[in-house]
Design a protein that fits this description.
The chain has 129 residues and is mainly alpha-helical. 69% of the residues lie in helices and 0% in strands. The longest helix has 20 residues.
Amino acid sequence: LQLPGAMGTAVNSPQWTLPACTKALGQLARQRDWRAALDLLEEIESSRLQIDTIVLNAALGATVGDVRKSGHGGEATMGLWRRALALHRRAASQGLECDAITSNIAINGCGVAGHWPWSMKLLSAMASH
């Protein structure tokens, strides 16, 4: 995984902190490179670092950003909104706090892809907490 700046090192190296990971994920989101963002998230999860809500939100943002770029329909869009939904579910199952930003990103990703029933389910779950 080729990352910007000093981030060409392994995620286990001391240069990698959660803020550095968040910055890298944000950069990947701006580049609309969701595959690299998910690869980085996977590396973070298998490293010494413990993922937090901010890192999760950055990874979700990269995925949803590509849903917007892909537009409605198509195989790519289907996969992206499902990945966003899976990330949201995984975070909740791992005990991470899915804050308003987390839920909003996932709701938006489902909605942009035209999957309003999932958006409404997430919205309802968010309102009940």
